[in-house]
Amino acid sequence: MRNGDDVYVRSWRGTAGTRWNTAHTHQTGCISAGGAEAEVSFTPVDDAAINDRVDAAYQAKYGRHSS
Known about the structure:
The chain is an alpha+beta fold. It is built from 2 helices and 4 strands; from the N terminus they run ββαββα. The chain has a two-stranded antiparallel sheet. A two-stranded antiparallel ribbon has the order 3-4.
């Protein structure tokens, strides 16, 4: 989900996912989407309002499979 210049992603397997663990450990990576590629940093988000918007975006896109 994009919010201004910020992009929010979630691990499909949550904290048990290999990609989540790698991102959490290294806190940097590269994301490729829509033909664009960017070096990024991964940081946890503790802002309830942002997390609610991310939840809503995933729910709208994936419906019952968004949990």
